[in-house]
Design a protein that fits this description.
By secondary structure, this protein is α/β, with parallel strands linked by helices. The protein is 24% helix and 28% strand. The protein binds alpha-D-glucopyranose. Alpha-D-glucopyranose binds next to loops.
Length: 689
């Protein structure tokens, strides 16, 4: 049951696409009391939580799986320091579930800033504050947490499914300069026997950071180079930034100016901001013609053989607004004449340090959206979503039958139909490995199935053990990409002493691909989650409720990664008896059945813990050096059979868009005596291991 409550004149976000079954209500919002409209400063709702209520959701946000005890702001922000004290990251995912005294879901459909206080000011009080402007509140009820999520997901439309190669391993670094650098990365992976499907091209591939250009000096014959890489089964994935460089003679700039596609200030002139290329204009992604123009620009690269992209800096990130910068320079002149005492010095410092992503700048430009002129801050959280939508809508026209890889940094619910998200500029910190795990279920709830973090960490220097442990989680995330910032320690796997450990663990991912891909597709097709907190699978187990560092992956598997330095194992909670596969590689494993309860489980640095639920199986293929090479002719089954297991394996060619997945389903049945039968599309050999 999904009820809709409209307040004021909301701006349509296109987050909800299936309205069937949604009841518009004039009654009072259940569970919440409306405290006040805060004299035009926004609207506030409050709910009294039970002492042990748990809150799930909010997609990409900091802190634990249980979001209780902190205050979060949906206000897409380019902030590369993801520490506990922050309130906003890059996304605005305004959906959460309360489980305890009451069980319900809430979606605040509002493109402006929304603040969620989950027991921050008062321990048992949950409040939602929506900044001025209209909005819609949806309240969902259902018989289980999972069912509420399904209903919500159904309303927001089917999640994006990537090409299969997008679930292979991708190597990235901000710093690869040219074709030579990329060739070398590929060669070293191949020589070290480390599987690889894609190499990411960060901003340096462009001519002076101009979107839809390729630097000829660095890539003399780009289409030929793309072909050469494809010949080695490597997909190149270029970055696209939101801001368009202001430069006479640059087509994207000139077309944008000529057709009025850029965001304008109140006086009708184009807003100027600063990002990587220096001075830029921001395409008005919300304006239909501008969006379709920007989307068509991707064709420039698609025509040269590119089949994947990542959209960046689309909060949009603003190093500075030009007018604001001028004010600061002027004020600095004034400061020169002053005595820099405690107040003046810190005043000056705060003024300069606060220059980027300043609220004042987000109030200085406008969009044309669905026939209205709207100030940016009123729709701020839609910008990244609409940039990715621009690409997604264009891809439908450019490549109607093919799946292209697409993920973005900024997002709002609704964008999940066009692409995935990566978790932004994390750091090579052990705490961020755990954060990576904790973000996964919340993202799934909000529709984002294609996701992963910069494996190994983007900022600061990685160590070999952290990278390996991180990979041991990364092999389960659909987006599995190692990315790092320039200036940090190089972190390609082949640079470390125990390259065989990396090769083995990543080999395990490729072997697990049939299971992971199948579970991904099922989650997308049935509006379900691929990564579940334990209580979603074991709602009646009170001990499962507190588990913050284990996840169910698909229907039959539980993972419990090690995320502490120097640990040689960890405590794991089993809500029921399970079979543990302690795996060093796709070939080497120790197997043990563990009873329900708490256990200390050993896991050496190069060992991954995979738990299989009773009467479930997970197929393992023979891995390969890239996705095309994965051999599914003989599937070995991780299994724990008490009576019988039935598994539906989904598969396809990995490229074409498919609506009728029935064609690709194989039903695998394992009887208690170990006999395996299969029917459907893939009837190869099956072996129990
Ligand atoms: C941003 C992105 C990061 C990228 C960098 C340079 O910080 O989040 O992934 O490497 O920009 O383009």
């Amino acid at each position: 049951m999904m009820k809709k409550f409209v307040f004021g004149n909301p701006i349509e976000t296109d987050a909800i696409v299936c309205r069937e079954g949604i009841v518009e209500s004039q009654e009072k919002v259940p569970y919440f009391s409306r405290v006040d409209d805060r004299q035009g400063e926004g609207c506030l709702f409050a709910y009294e939580m039970g002492g042990h209520d748990i809150i799930y959701g909010l997609g990409e946000s900091i802190r634990g799986i249980n979001k209780r005890g902190w205050i979060y702001e949906s206000n897409c922000t380019d902030d590369p320091i993801h520490t506990e004290n922050k309130r906003s990251l890059y996304a605005a995912h305004n959906f959460f579930l309360v489980d305890g005294k009451g069980r319900f879901g809430v979606f605040v459909d509002a493109p402006q800033k929304v603040t969620f206080d989950f027991g921050y000011y008062e321990r048992d009080r949950l409040t939602i504050t929506v900044d001025p402007g209209g909005f819609i509140l949806y309240i969902l009820e259902g018989e289980s947490l999972r069912q509420i999520v399904r209903e919500f997901r159904h309303a927001i439309g089917r999640s994006y499914i990537p090409p299969k190669w997008g679930m292979g391993y991708g190597q990235s670094r901000w710093g690869y300069q040219n074709a030579q650098d990329i060739r070398q990365v590929v060669r070293q992976h191949r020589e070290a026997g480390v599987p690889l499907d894609s190499v990411y091209m960060d901003i340096d591939y462009m001519e002076r950071y101009k979107d839809f250009t390729v630097d000829k000096g660095k890539f003399p014959d780009f289409p030929e180079f793309v072909k050469e890489m494809k010949g080695q089964n490597i997909h190149l994935v270029p970055i696209i930034d939101a801001g368009v460089k202001i430069e006479e003679g640059y087509p994207a700039y000139e077309e944008g100016i000529e057709n009025g596609y850029f965001c304008k200030k109140e006086d009708g002139t184009e807003f100027v901001g600063g990002v990587w290329p220096g001075r830029v204009h921001f395409p008005d992604m919300l304006k239909e013609e501008a969006r379709s123009w920007f989307g068509q620009k991707y064709k420039f690269l698609i025509d040269q053989g590119i089949d994947g992209f990542w959209n960046d800096m689309n909060e949009p990130a603003l190093f500075y607004g030009e007018d604001h910068l001028k004010d600061i320079f002027r004020e600095l002149g004034e400061y020169q004449k002053k005595e820099l005492d405690i107040e003046t010095f810190f005043g000056m410092k705060d003024m300069v340090l606060g220059l980027s992503n300043h609220p004042k700048d987000y109030q200085a430009f406008y969009h044309e959206y669905k026939g209205e002129v709207i100030r940016h801050d009123k729709v701020h959280n839609l910008y990244g979503y609409y940039m990715t939508r621009a690409a997604g809508e264009a891809f439908e026209k450019i490549e109607p039958d093919k799946r292209l890889l697409m993920f973005s940094r900024a997002s709002y619910i609704g964008m999940h139909r066009y692409g995935g998200v990566w978790m932004g500029d994390n750091c090579s910190w052990w705490s961020h490995l755990l954060l990576n795990l904790q973000m996964l279920p919340g993202l799934n709830m909000c529709g984002f199935l294609y996701t992963g973090a910069d494996l190994g960490g983007f900022g600061s220097d990685v160590t070999e053990d952290l990278l390996l442990r991180w990979l041991e989680l990364g092999i389960f995330t659909p987006l599995m990409r190692n990315h790092s910032a320039q200036g940090t320690r190089l972190q390609e796997f082949y640079r470390f002493g125990h390259v065989e450990s990396f090769r083995n663990i990543i080999g395990l991912r490729y072997a697990l691909l049939p299971y992971l891909y199948s579970e991904y597709v099922k989650a997308a097709m049935t509006d379900d989650m691929m990564f579940l907190p334990l209580p979603f699978a074991y709602p009646d187990d009170p001990a499962a409720a507190g588990v913050e560092d284990q996840l169910m992956v698909g229907e039959g598997m539980m993972i419990a990664p090690v995320y502490r330095q120097n640990a040689r194992g960890r405590y794991v909670y089993l809500p029921e008896e399970m079979k543990l596969y302690r795996m060093r590689s796709e070939e080497s494993m120790e197997v043990q059945v563990l009873p329900a309860g708490h256990h200390y489980v050993e896991a050496e640095l190069d060992q991954v813990l995979i738990f299989i639920r009773p009467d479930h199986v997970a197929p393992l293929a023979k891995g390969g050096c890239h996705v095309e090479e994965v051999d599914v002719s003989c599937l070995r089954l991780l299994h724990f059979i008490k009576t019988e297991a039935v598994y539906e394996l989904y598969d396809d060619d990995g490229y074409r868009k498919i609506t009728d997945w029935e064609q690709g389903v194989t039903k695998i049945t394992v009887a208690v005596n170990g006999e395996v039968t299969a029917s459907g599309s893939k009837t190869g050999t099956y072996v129990l291991i």
